[in-house]
Write a structure and sequence with these properties.
- The strands form three sheets. This protein has a six-stranded antiparallel β-sheet, with no helix packed on it. It has a three-stranded antiparallel β-sheet with strand order 9-10-11, with no helix packed on it.
- The chain has a domain at about 10-75: SH3 type barrels.
- The chain is elongated and about 55 Å long.
- It is mainly beta.
- The chain is about 0% helix and about 45% strand.
- It is built from no helices and eleven strands.
């Protein structure tokens, strides 16, 4: 199945405690149907001290389910669904993601 949400996309949280917040996708985990979004779904974790970093309680992003986030429309920043369109002819055809809300192409 084609990736509707990819690393680097700006997304809006549509459900959960962070509803309405936006952030950039850091990582997508297709096998788990989850994504890490910068600054969203923050949790506190106890970190053991190592030579590289200090110990203590650190805040970090936890994965959020893909059904709870939607791509931000490039035109107005509101949540939108993602569609696909083909550009070109023959072997040079390219699949392009399109925002359903405004019809604008989503460039990677």
């Amino acid at each position: 199945m084609a990736a509707r949400i990819r690393k680097g996309d700006t997304v809006v949280v549509i459900a959960g405690r962070d509803k309405g917040r936006t952030g950039e996708v850091i990582e997508v985990r297709p096998a788990e149907a989850r994504a890490l979004v910068r600054g969203v779904n923050m949790v506190k974790r106890h970190q053991k001290q190592s030579a590289a970093q200090e110990g203590g309680i650190v805040s970090k992003e936890a994965p959020i389910h893909l059904s709870n986030i939607a791509l931000a429309d490039p035109k107005d920043g509101k949540p939108t669904r993602v569609g696909f369109r083909f550009e070109g002819e023959g072997d040079a055809r390219k699949k392009v993601r399109v925002a359903k809300r405004s019809g604008v192409d989503i460039h990677d």
